[in-house]
Design goal:
The complex is a heterodimer of chains A (358) and B (388). Chain A is globular. Chain A has 18 helices and no strands. With 358 residues, chain A is mainly α. In chain A, 44% of the residues are buried. The chains are: A mainly alpha (358), B mainly beta (388). At the A-B interface, loops of A face helix 2 of B.
Chain lengths: 358, 388
Amino acid sequence: MKHVFSAALIFAFLILSACGGSKSNTPLVVNQDTISNALRLAVDNSILVAVTGFEAQASGLSTKAATFCEAPATATLSAAQQQWALLVEQWYRLEAYKFGPLDDDIVFPAYNYIDSYRLRGTDYTATVRTEIKAMMNSSESLTEAYFDNKNFNQVGLLALEVTLFETADTQSQQPTDILNEFTSAPRKCEILKGLSLQLLKRARYVEEGWNQQHKNSDEPYRELFLSNRLDDGAEPLTQLLASIQEHLDYLQQRNVVTNTSRISGHAWRAVTASIDEIESLLKGDDDAETSFFKLMRKSGFATSVDTVESNIQMARDSITLQDPVQFEIAVAQLDGNFKREIPNGLEVELGINFTDGD
Amino acid sequence: MKRIEINRRQFLATLAAAGLSPLCIATPFGAGEKPSASATEMWVSAQGNSSDKYSLGWVDADARPKSTSGRILSGYRGHGLAYHPTKPNKVVMFSRRPGRVGMELDVLTGKIEHRFYSTEGRHQSGHGCFSSDGAVLFVCETLSSSGKGNISVLDAKTYQCLNQFDSYGIGPHEIKLMPDNRTLVIANGGLHQSPKSGQGILNLESMESNLSYVDSVSGELVSKYRVTEPKASIRHLDVADDGTVALAMQVQRAAMSSNRVVPLGAVHKQGKPIELLAEPNMLIAQMHDYMGSVAINSTFRIAGFSSPRGNVTAFWHLDSHQLLGYHAFHDVCGLAVTQDQQRFVLTNSFGQLRQLNAHNLQEQVSQRLQFPDMQWDNHLSVIPTRKA
């Protein structure tokens, strides 16, 4: 009986194969190899692009700050401000990958020095304003070492925003007022250049960690990540999915669209970059042999992919309308997708949920 | 490493031979699958991430040539453990809330000796402890309707309830016996959680956590202490040889209007106020309001605290309250001290196990163990074992 059943199965398979035809219809099994392949493509085509892109934009700001300080003018100020905006967008791409060199020190993680709001959603604008005024009025030499010793909440994107987009005395956002202050108070340019250099150093640290040498190892983080040799024992795909899920949780829980980039009014562009990044990571390149979405679709999770895509579109619609409530709903749903649909589709174990009270 | 597990057929055959159904008992070990006879201690923990896998998992790190591990299916999600002080190799695993069942088993034979159940209308809080003479077991329970804490006193031979008394708070969680062998110290978390799911918190606004010292004979309150932050829930504790208690807390941020960092670890000596381990602020912030387990090394006067949300375990000195070190470990929660006090042992939900030298808190990287089919749950215990 058993042999008859087996023969029937083989026959049915042959018939179905003959009817189905092409290789692309063959179910793609989620296994170690296919996951590793998709992960490698995600690292090389998304994460490393975000890492190097952030370093390039940070370098660009350092250059534009120097150019502005050499020839203060409305045009050079505007160029520096626009460069800051590009840097923030790139940050919101990179921030979804908050692990590895960006978060390799429990007490002094690099990400904290880039975006002080990220840790606990605390708005340090008042602290930064006080600090910039104090630096402008002080006689202390504004050396690189001086900025090296600054607290995390006195440097980074917020400090640069406050420096570039308003005056220290009246908080005027008029370009002519800002320009006049830079011209009349040369120390403010030293502050701008010092803060820019600090951020560039963090960006370089992250870039070098991913591409050259991570902490005390002799290898780039890319190699450690892809070969599943992470210091803290995390599985790479688990680490990646958990990081994006945390990022989405952060975007909604901390009301990022209403509480950040308040002076420059740049928050919506920033979160757009985040959504772009996440979609790009999941979809991969159209020409690529595989991606997380392709893997899920081919292994029977097409409905889950549709759900995720629908939520991404909902987030985009809310951005177009600049509707914070709808944005938070959409992002919360995406957050849920990274806890359920995507891990299920990729057969990833996220670990036990150690919830409150246990 | 070697993992030992009997297959389904063996399991069912064993159950049939014992006249038991799969629902009411789990697997003993098969022949030749026992932990090493030379084991002097075993590391045990509730484990599993689904109802068909919930079990007590064990590691015999002293086995040669490789460490061995195995599991004993429980049929319920376990939480904390207590080892019997006079019955060698016997350990009790309590239910994670809102479960009502606990079991005593022999870690060397894998035999489940007893199952016991909390009275209808109560659920176990996940922890309990034996009296020093091993005569009775104190089980931390919560009255499902009100959240009121109850300590059931069970006969440690028959597991019949002999007595019960107040925990002197809402939502008790961990309980330990003090070195005087008479006083119990109880972490009353203050949370009244939904009796059905055990998750939703019903009294966030009015919650009040405390640390209570209770006479284990009379059931009378000896003393009660609170922390200054009312939304900090004292959940876990450990006791040093000299009676110093280390507390691990979880902050109910949803009930707070402030975003300030709240200390999660504390140290207490009876008769004195609770002292918070408040620094370094940045490290505590990274723990995201959640410490999951605490273990004291009395020899070195070190208290270790794990934070699965922060992916870190941190260590403070019990007397100076200075941070001594920390170790990044993904999803870490299980934390214990070896019998010889020379190592801290850490586990995570991915089946990984790490050991830190207690002298310098450096990881012994070569001693890493991984059990791919294990998902270590919140708590790890070191159980002394004795040859037959």
